[in-house]
Amino acid sequence: GNNLILTIDMTIQSIVEKYLEEACIDNICTDGGSIVAMNPRNGDILAMANYPSYNLNTPYEPYSDELKATWTSLDAASKTAALQGIWRNKTISDTYEPGSVFKVVVASAALEENIVSTDTPGIFFCSGSQEVADRKIRCANEAGHGYQSLRQALENSCNPAFIQLGQKIGVDTLYKYFKSFGLFTKTGIATSGEATGIFHDKDSVGPVELATISFGQRFTITPLQMITAVSSIANDGVLMQPRIVKSVTNTDTGAVTNLDTKEVRQVISAETSKKMLSMMESVVTDGGGKYGQVTGYSVAGKTGTSEATEGSSSGYVSSFVGVAPADDPQLVVLLTLYKPQGKDHFGGHIAAPVVSQI
């Protein structure tokens, strides 16, 4: 019978639920969507929502119009499966391929190790594709981006450039940073059902695996792990444990137990953090994230569009992470849309404008 005081901000929560639902319906996201808003300074979850959702007062009844339309025709097993699906907290319990949002993690590792600097011209070259071992990995821009600095490669979300960057960093160093960013373990958020990422065993990472990891594909993490890592980049390089319960009040005695914020570790330097935020701001002002702009605010961000492995039915995942204000981050928002079937599936086109509205 204790009272829980959550970190959730009811105003922000109602805003994200509204825009997430609109985005999932507008873009015909057949596997729904999820969104998290976090305070990067202390790890507080300000809002967390999934779509399709359900009414907590009537959890056994269909909530979305799509499910209502077919509900009476479903057998008992299908109804149970549908309910289990909408009760799952995708943000915490489901993993996904993060795609290009993950490039901020790879770029952070490279800057921290002094492998590259942000604006050295022409250190990467993109002809529209990259030969790796026995295959050709294409860039989204088939004409190619030509010579690029790291900042330009991030703005363009250029896969060949990040393949070249991954080769420069090497698998041992990359995995060291993945571990440091908390991607190999659960975040430890105080709620049930948390999953953790699924990565290639380090010893089995060949040239092709190294290439795809470098641009955020062929491994999975949870949205919560992704936003926690981005929040550490926004928080002078300090990784915070996500917090959803602020305090517990004993209703008999009135005693209040506070749950403190928890600093996990310093992942990158404050200097690298500033460089990353500067490049992520360029993504929004000059690059693929321009629909993430907000009048009167400096927004840093990164788009993501991952596609399923050949032969898989999981479809595209479109996402955008936004950090605001870019020069003094107070808010990080990650929106993830699963299997959009509308006219577009690029994260910069369908996810960034929603985060901008929020």
Strand arrangement in the largest pleated sheet? 3-2-14-13-12
Helical run tally: 13
Oligomer: single chain
Element pattern in H and E: EHEEHHHHEEEEHHHHHEEEEHEEEHH
End-to-end span in angstroms? 34 Å
Mean pLDDT: 94
Structural class: alpha+beta
Helix fraction bin: 25-40%
What is the makeup of the main sheet?
5 strands, antiparallel
Measured on Cα atoms, how large is the radius of gyration? 20 Å
- The coarse silhouette is globular
Q: Which consecutive residue ranges, at least 5 long each, have pLDDT under 50? A: none
Question: DSSP strand (E) fraction?
Answer: 15-25%
Number of strands: 14
What is the topological layout?
Elements: E1 3-6, H1 10-26, E2 33-38, E3 45-51, H2 65-70, H3 76-87, H4 90-93, H5 103-112, E4 124-126, E5 129-132, E6 135-138, E7 146-148, H6 150-156, H7 159-169, H8 171-180, H9 207-214, H10 223-234, E8 238-240, E9 245-249, E10 256-258, E11 263-266, H11 270-286, E12 300-306, E13 317-324, E14 331-338, H12 347-350, H13 352-357
Antiparallel strand pairs: 1-9, 2-3, 2-14, 4-7, 5-6, 8-11, 9-10, 12-13, 13-14
Structure description:
With 358 residues, the protein is α+β, with helices and mostly antiparallel strands. 35% of the residues lie in helices and 19% in strands. The strands form 5 sheets. It has a 5-stranded antiparallel beta sheet, with helices on both faces. A 3-stranded antiparallel beta sheet has the order 1-9-10, with no helix packed on it. Strand 13 and strand 14 form a beta hairpin. The longest helix is centred in the first third of the chain and has 17 residues. The protein is globular and about 65 Å long. The model has no long low-confidence stretch (mean pLDDT 94).
